[in-house]
Amino acid sequence: MSEYPSSFDRDDLLKCARGELFGEGNAQLPEPPMLMMDRITDISGDGGAHGKGHVLAEFDIKPDLWFFECHFPGNPIMPGCLGLDGLWQLTGFNLGWRGWTGRGYALGVGEIKLKSMVRPDAKLLTYEIDFTKAIQTRRLTMGVADGIVKVDGELAYEVKDMKVALSES
Known about the structure:
Distance between the termini: 26 Å
CATH superfamily: Hotdog Thioesterase
Order of helices and strands: HEEHHEEEEE
Radius of gyration: 15 Å
CATH topology: Thiol Ester Dehydrase, Chain A
CATH architecture: Roll
């Protein structure tokens, strides 16, 4: 389906952040420290629970990550919004991986459930995204997906109806 591989290491993700993977003006990841994954282990445009695409990715948790020091002093926790942002980042990445053009924008999320916290002693965050819709028309390029975030194998976040669009403007 795509001319791109089905897995990406950190160097590949940094190329995407610089606009070198999908081309200038197309889907782009943020640079560190806002890049919320270290690798994509599997991606497709026709896999997942609904057969409309999926992404599996990982983020190595280290005690010295920038957000632990400030959120909160004496009680460090990864902000839940960063896990959600990682899901949005990967949803937009999938649209670019499909070869669809335009810059990515998060449009919203239908439901978020925060089930557990990510603390500095955790080792690995895993993302699982399943697309429910992937739309490309003359006027609209958008992905709608459900996702979960696990910390060391335990469910941490669950989201329904994430929406990410690609826009030429």
